[in-house]
Write a structure and sequence with these properties.
By secondary structure, the protein is an all-alpha fold. The chain has one domain: Growth Hormone, Chain: A (Up-down Bundle). 83% of the residues lie in helices and 0% in strands. Helix 2 packs antiparallel against helix 15, helix 3 runs antiparallel to helix 6 and helix 8 packs antiparallel against helix 16. The chain is globular.
Length: 424
């Protein structure tokens, strides 16, 4: 279950990420509560979430091109420093009592601009640290660390917000970036020769786009991911509404709900870490999506805090299994030369489509209420999973080809796409 930990660089990566991600989730919860306190508007919650996520929609494919052309560790370091400065500025504005909603909006946008490059580089960097053999285990362990932060961060945020306010939560996050920066600097990586690019960035982008467009397994995986990002993830944006007006709690209730989701997600990550192969991965994606969608609809119907927390366990579990399985499938079937660009499109569909859902969720939340908004999204996700289930044979075939190539000790060939069929 911990095969990837045998790699020193990956151990450093996990240590830095583990500390930094607690701060990230502290800021995420505190920011949501700050916006809701200042505006008392579900629509404004959706707008701020939109600002933080919309860069992924437009820039993730471009980030993939950049990541395939530059030193990934240096890019991650640069983005970490930028994100630390963003958290420090938000802390200063809040602690001095001058913060306004529009400040949070634009700072969330700035964080999203940095995050789109950092996330793409970080996901691509995993294979450099552990190799393809331990990639699925590394993805699962990375997800478990992420969700450990999701468990601890909201709990810490709930205490800090209630005791001393949101500003100190942002200060905690700014300080936490030092951990990941130090760990990245301590890594020992083999010297890499400068990359001599023979084609323009635009041609690189077109190459990645043609691959995704002409490769049915990748297309099916990305379309389901995009649909669920739009329809299911707005429940996180509306969580302050559930905590306050539906369940009649406060910041502590918000922290408990977010932590319950994180507990389920870390269990899902551990389940994926225990998997030893690609067999059955496409079926797992379908089952996980249906599971968390049903649980999400039941959560929306609950009016009891403890029952809501219990229902969020399968929500977090199913979401994390579906995400990790999709990530693993895509990284397993993509050629190495296209990895950054593929993960750019992955980021666009995973995070970039979420702002559309955030806007829709905020608007419908104000129109028909948060519970019915979440139920409607869950029903659509179930329908999408059933459609994917009819298409998953192409995904299964691609994964079986990878398994056969790995068993024979041969490199996985570049799959045929429309561009190669057309002779372009």
């Amino acid at each position: 279950m911990t095969r990837a930990v045998r790699h020193r660089n990956f151990r450093l990566f996990l240590a830095g990420q583990g500390l930094s991600l607690i701060g990230t989730w502290v800021q995420s919860v505190a920011q949501s509560w700050l916006v809701y306190r200042l505006s008392e508007s579900p629509v404004m919650l959706g707008l701020v979430a939109f600002a933080g996520q919309v860069p992924y929609l437009f820039l993730a494919p471009i980030a993939g091109v950049v990541v395939d052309r530059v030193n990934r560790r240096k890019l991650i370091l640069l983005m970490q420093v930028f994100e630390m400065a963003q958290a420090a500025l938000l802390a200063t504005l809040t602690l001095t009592g001058t913060v306004q909603v529009w400040h949070v909006f634009y700072l969330a946008l700035a964080l999203g601009l940095a995050g789109v490059f950092e996330m793409t580089a970080r996901q691509t960097f995993l294979v450099e640290m552990v190799g393809k053999e331990d990639l699925m285990n590394a993805i699962a362990l990375n997800s478990s660390i992420y969700n450990s932060g999701r468990i601890l961060g909201p709990a810490v945020a709930g205490v800090l917000v209630a005791a001393i306010g949101e500003g100190w939560c942002f200060a905690v996050n700014a300080a936490s970036f030092l951990a990941v920066i130090v760990c990245l600097l301590l890594m020992r990586l083999p010297a890499s020769s400068p990359r001599e690019e023979e084609v323009s960035p635009l041609e690189h982008f077109r190459e990645g786009w043609n691959y995704v467009r002409g490769h049915p397994p990748s297309r099916a995986l990305l379309l389901l991911l995009g649909l669920t990002s739009v329809m299911s993830y707005p429940f996180l944006v509306l969580m302050p509404v559930f905590a306050d007006t539906v369940l009649h709690g406060g910041p502590q209730a918000l922290g408990l709900l977010m932590s319950a989701t994180g507990v389920g997600a870390i269990l899902g990550s551990l389940y994926m870490a225990m998997r030893t192969g690609l067999r059955g991965l496409s079926r797992t994606i379908t089952a996980a999506t249906v599971t968390y969608s049903v649980a999400l609809a039941l959560f929306a119907l609950s009016r009891n805090l403890h029952l809501s927390m219990l229902l969020l366990l399968p929500v977090g579990f199913g979401m994390m299994v579906a995400i990790a399985a999709t990530n693993t499938a895509l990284q397993s079937i993509v050629p190495d030369a296209l990895r950054g660009r593929m993960l750019g499109f992955y980021g666009m569909m995973f995070v970039g489509m979420t702002p559309i859902g955030s806007l829709l969720g905020g608007w419908f939340g104000g129109l028909i209420g948060a519970p019915w908004t979440v139920i409607g999204g869950a029903v659509i996700c179930i329908a999408g999973a059933l459609i994917f289930n009819h298409k998953r044979l192409v995904v299964r075939a691609a994964l079986l080809q990878v398994m056969e190539q790995q068993a024979q000790g041969f490199p996985v060939p570049v799959p045929v796409t429309r561009s190669t069929e057309d002779g372009q």
